[in-house]
Amino acid sequence: MAGGLSVEYRENALIKKLFLLSAVSFTLYAQSVSLEELLKSSSEQSFNLKMFKSDEEISHSNLYSVYSQYYPSLALSYNTEYNRDEDGLPTGTESVGNTIITSGTRYQSSLSLNLNYELYHFGVSDKSVHMAEYDVDIKHLLWCEEEKRLHQSILDRYSSALKMKTKSDFKSKMLDIRRTLYKVKKRLYVAGKSSKIDLGDEAIFIIDLEREVELSIMQYKEDIIQLSALSHVELDDVNTELLDIGFDNNSDLVDSFSQTTEGLKYSKMLKQKKEEISRNKRLLFPTISTYGNYYFYGSNPSSVYDSFEDIKRNSWKVGLSLQMTIFEGFKYNHDRHRLTYELQRLEDEKNQKQREYQYNAKSKVSKIQYLNILEDKDDNLFKETQEKIVMIERLREDNQIDSMSELQANLEHIERELNLKIERSERAYENASLHILYRGVDQCTQH
Question: Of 96, 158, 182, 347, which is the most exposed, with the fewest CB atoms less than 10 Å away?
Answer without folding.
Answer: 96
